[in-house]
UniProtKB/TrEMBL annotation:
Pfam families in UniProt: DCD
Enzyme class: hydrolase
EC number(s) stated in the UniProt entry for this protein: 3.5.4.13
Entry keyword set: Hydrolase, Nucleotide metabolism
Protein known as: dCTP deaminase
Gene source species: Ancylobacter pratisalsi
GO molecular function, one term: dCTP deaminase activity
Biological processes annotated in GO: dUTP biosynthetic process; nucleobase-containing small molecule interconversion
Amino acid sequence: MILTDRDILDALKEDLLVIEPAPPMEFYAPNGVDLRLDSRLSLYRDPAPGEDPVIDPARPGYRFSEAICTMADDIEIGPDGFVLDPGRLVLGWTHERVDLRPAGRLAARVEGKSSLARIGLIVHLTAPTIHAGSTGRIQLEIINLGPRPIRLRAGMKVCQLILEQTLGVPQRAYGGQFAGQRAAG
């Protein structure tokens, strides 16, 4: 069951859900809440001379966080924004920290905003799920699939959080490789 704006506000009041900083009322839609882009991005760089450019996620011992550290740099979005060229992928985070308390029986999905999708901006490739018990800023896989460059600005509305009620309380909170992930920097 998807929560309405009223249900989301009730969950916040009852401390079953935390969104910090709290979104202003105009960020709420009938069944979701807008989240903003953080000021930091991770930009992929070209392989260094002699570096193996192949990523092997099935290799024993592979860790996503280590792979990203070897192929991406963190930057701060300046006052003029960051221009995302067509076809380019960057990692971003939400400005807001989201805490889905296990007792709240909530999970969520992060979805793009239609106004941005219509110009080619995608905020997740195949990873919209925010598991029950997750806490932290939400990492975004941002890509420009449009025909023109798109300027990203810190604080812009970049995605929607859609909250769903689970049928029960999870046996354990989310503890996968992205548990407690931090924003870049």
